[in-house]
Every structure is written in C-alpha cells, then in structure tokens.
Amino acid sequence: MTGKLWQNALLLAILTIVFNIAEGLVSIWFGASDDMLTLFGFGVDSFIETISAVGVAVMITRIRNNPDTDKSRFEITSLKITGWCFYILAVILAAGAVLNLVQGHKPESTLPGVIISLISIASMLGLIVAKKRLGMKLSCPPLIADANCNLVCVYMSLVLLFASGAFALFHLGWIDTVGTAGIIFFSLREGRESLERAEALK
Hints:
elongated
C-alpha cells in the first residue's frame, strides 16, 4: 500500500513538471507577443518552478527506493539554483517594469493572461490538495512543503488574473506594472524560501 502511495506522489511530481513546462511555454509566448510583462514573468517563473519540481521528483524516488538514505546533492543544488533564479527573475522584471513606466507602455491584449491564470489556479489547487493528503498519509514533510510552495503559484496566478482582468476593463498601462510588482514580490519570497530549504537539507 505504501509503495502505491509513493508511486502516486511521484506521478504528482511528474504532472507538476509537465504542467509547469506547458504553462511556461504558453505564458512566455503570449506574454512576448502581447507585450504583457506580468504574463511573461509568470511564464519564466513556471520554468523556475520546474527545476524545483524535478528536485522533488528525485527526492520522492530516493525515499521510495531507499528510505534511510541522506538527502542527495542534486536535491540541495536544485533548490539553490531555484532560489537564485527567482532573484535574477525579480531583477529582470523590475528593470522591465521601470522601462515600461518610462515609455508609457500598454499591453496589446490581456485575455490570454485571464485564461491562463484561471487554468493555473484550478490545476494548482488540485495538486495542492492531492500532495497534502499524500504527504499526511506518508508522513512526508517535504511533500507537504512542496504543496505549500505550490500555494505561492496560486498567489501568482491571482496576481496575473487581477492584472489581466483590470487592464481588460480599464486599459491602463500601469496595471501591468502593478501585476509585475506582485510577481516580483512572490519571486523574492520563493527565492528566499528555496535557499532556506536548501540550507535546512544540509
């Protein structure tokens, strides 16, 4: 029974990886084509989340096969890379946001942002519930922690939904900058938490 639960946990990790890659590709494409910085940053964030998700998949595989083994260097390194990538993303988005304000830039369309954010919220909430249930059954704090990290993705999706919906209603260019600021805030938060988790695993 426990083996089946670990198999389900690995499946959830793989689903997270696949979803983040697909979400990242679509978001970056529409973010770039519609000149929407919030959506573009959201897409890059999805790829960074993929690095963390791969680390979680490796962790689940290790625990399932050898429960008594220590944390692997790969798991720690993936968290460090994830953390620093979030910081770099925050810097790039901040520079882009300032440039957009100076130039008075407005996105061409934010409809893709609305659709993508709604899909992301529904998908991530499903993954969070499933991961927390499995984490409790397996007494696996790292799996529960991963579910809590996915909750930050929901917050980012809400930021994207707000920015996309507000621009669609009011057509004010600075709303995209406000949304970008929200993505920056959560990127910095996730970066810090990833580095803290890496230190805790040492």
